[in-house]
Amino acid sequence: MDPRALYRPSLGLLTDLYQLTMAAGYWKLGMADREAIFHLFARKPPFGGGWAVAAGLGPALALLEGWGFDRADLDYLATLTGNDGGPLFEEGFLRHLEGLRFSCDVDAVPEGTLVGPPAPLLRIQGPLLQAQILETPLLTILNFQTLIATKAARIALAAGDDPVLEFGLRRAQGIDGGLSASRAAYLGGAAATSNVLAGRLFDIPVKGTHAHSWVMVFEDEPAAFAHYADALPNNCVFLVDTYDTVEGVHRAVAAGRALRARGHELAGVRLDSGDLGALAVEARRILDAGGFPDAAVVASNDLDEHRIAALKAAGAPIGVWGVGTRLVTAHDQPSLGGVYKLGAVRDADGAWQPRIKLSENPVKVSIPGCLQVRRHVDPETGFFAGDTIWSAHHGGPPAAQGPDDHDLLVPCFRGGQRVDEPVPLAVSRARARASVQRLAPADRALSPEGAYPVSLAPPLAAARAALVARAGKGDPA
Amino acid sequence: MDPRALYRPSLGLLTDLYQLTMAAGYWKLGMADREAIFHLFARKPPFGGGWAVAAGLGPALALLEGWGFDRADLDYLATLTGNDGGPLFEEGFLRHLEGLRFSCDVDAVPEGTLVGPPAPLLRIQGPLLQAQILETPLLTILNFQTLIATKAARIALAAGDDPVLEFGLRRAQGIDGGLSASRAAYLGGAAATSNVLAGRLFDIPVKGTHAHSWVMVFEDEPAAFAHYADALPNNCVFLVDTYDTVEGVHRAVAAGRALRARGHELAGVRLDSGDLGALAVEARRILDAGGFPDAAVVASNDLDEHRIAALKAAGAPIGVWGVGTRLVTAHDQPSLGGVYKLGAVRDADGAWQPRIKLSENPVKVSIPGCLQVRRHVDPETGFFAGDTIWSAHHGGPPAAQGPDDHDLLVPCFRGGQRVDEPVPLAVSRARARASVQRLAPADRALSPEGAYPVSLAPPLAAARAALVARAGKGDPA
Questions:
Q1: What one-character DSSP code corresponds to residue A369?
Q2: Tens of pLDDT along B50-72?
Q3: Where in A212-356 does DSSP place strands (E)?
Q4: Higher pLDDT among residues B7 and B444, named by residue
Q5: How far apart are CA A388 and CA A154, in angstroms?
Q6: Which chain A positions have a beta carbon within 8 Å of B322's beta carbon?
Q7: Which chain B residues contact residue A358 at CB under 8 A?
Q8: N or C: which end of chain A has fewer CB atoms below 10 A?
Q9: CB neighbours (10 Å) of residue B76?
Q10: 0.90 exceeded by pTM
Q11: Are the beta carbons of A179 and B175 closer than 8 angstroms?
Q12: What single DSSP character describes residue A452?
């Protein structure tokens, strides 16, 4: 999905102001076109898990293709002032922005790829000014979609072979919070969404039947079910908990019989409150006894991967899982915390200089260089054995451990020209589903003992340690 | 902000599929224009607090003004199938959607108004089909913006007179997750945003200076500060923690002296890691000793209302607060959980029939009727004394307890025509700031002993109890 097809304004200003003030600084100092390398990565896996599912690249690359500033953007920037009341930006800088076209190289991990933080999801190499401004929109898109795709993959893993339906639009974070959540949820493993616009824009299957309000509108629940069956006979999943759930299932069976007499089938019942495990057993029993062994028991109500896993472990006969709030908001960790760090910059002589950001917290010390990620595949099991982050500036690739070892970042842009083929969302979804199955069983756990193993190639680790030692003395180069 | 100015596609499909299948059912049964009343409300205040700040109404009303389905929407709906492979929707229903124009009455709480759940934020009265479809987009917009405005109001309350800057775009939930978060954060009390597009679209002040990457690009930190001061002399807040924070403050003072010699002033330093309280004391001391008593100490790094309150209580000399992830994602409670419930529907004879949704959980039992919220204002203190939810169908308004008592929901649409004046965002922001100050001090606490007092008018409470008793027997009417 190209954000330009969704949004009317130019998205050039979709960035933090400090990116533009830094850009103005680089321009003023004659450094706008100084070549730099930035990496976008998450420092650790979300949700207490060991891995993430890369997502958001399609929309991010589409944004880069159309990136730039229009007249209204520049007119707005010209109105901004500094602390002396004078203009914040010089006219020459605004003219520079006006003529700007994206001209960077981008290498990135395809959507649906399983990744082990802190491996980079994306590397951008090109003019410092451009790469700097693009930090924010790239993070906005990749952070959120990777977060939600990962949550969806965890939920789908817990649900096993059962379909997961994403129902979250009403609790999503704004309109496109909902649209992009639906996209990422499907990519990560959801089977369908309730969000009709997302269905249309992204070609995602859509699902839905009726709410409590339908039942409340009619004189009683049997009438409500009968009327729904009359109107939409090929879409009958009755929501049975408006008044009394067990009674509701009996009424659904009665409506199902009338439906069958007309040549249609009851698709299922939905439980949306109460003790879902116990109610599912009772609903299953009533459906089976009533002659509807193929009608599904659908469950919803604040579900997530942990609740689904617990219900499955307890043997709840639930066949379809409706997941909303906790999926689209990533309820237990609503941000991935991905960052975008300078890895190297060319000096005035054109030589690459590695760069590092220090921190008292070792996980926050950045990784210098021009990074790539080598995935090692166990030749015997076919499982992903672990990844090695390596730098083309520091010793090159690690030795292959097997014939299926491969690098994860693939070329997307060269000199501002798109060089990859856009990938259909369903293909990325299939990749995500297959990737999770390539994890060793211990790594696949929702709360693994350790994260999926990711290490630095020894020459890169040594170069980083040397930079840390020098930077600690205030001399990063 | 009108969503039509932001989004290219028609937003008619921005809803859950089940709203459209129910709509098809109402149409099929000849009930599309049956009049109904729905209320949108949060069941309880977010974040363990006692109140919320209403937000999102402006965009929601703009969406209603332009609401409808275009040809592409209907073509898409025509492709959907049911469980027998046949079309889900009849052609007649799609033609009905094609001719649809918004024709409801809407009454709602103006943005920036302090509200006490479960008081309704919005009431819609009109054709059942329309009101049903609009449930999802109204919830999407009002839930999220109310959540973020409330979070911002709590953060601003903790920060007292200090400005709060919203820096969250990179961690926001998609592009418009970021745009609408910036809008709601400003409405709730933030002083500015880093999000330049939000600044342009919503007329919000924008702020920002430089990131770690600026410092990392140059040969060392003194050079980085000096270059920034050269390029942007009227926008100097130096980020001092790239290598060693205390050393960074000394370097900022040195750069500030050079800046002053050129006729400009150092605006401040920013701390983004470490022990913010201790570092702020040290930074303040160095700035004061260096001749910069007016330069601000700006703090950022995973701040929220609780961390700000703790730093303020400890006397940290921080003058400006940069808040990102925890504000724009509402980190500790990323969804408001607002709902939209049927209050009444006309029967075939045109008489209003109250409606209720039962639940084992008393807080989830809905409130029947045609609701309004009476705010009682203490005549002596001017503080908000509490609210009474009353129903025009059940006994009318409660007696005034003072001359400033007033109703919160105001007319916005009559028969599909907009009747209110759009309110500038800055006016809504001022209302929010003033409203919080009208809370009694005990109610203003971030973790109050009890929620802001909201009760049902006695006739409404009695009518609800009678409906609960009847509905428990499966006879809601």
A1: S
A2: 999 999 999 999 999 989 999 99
A3: 237-239, 268-271, 296-299, 320-323, 339-346, 352-354
A4: B444
A5: 24
A6: none
A7: 242-243
A8: C
A9: 18
A10: yes
A11: no
A12: P
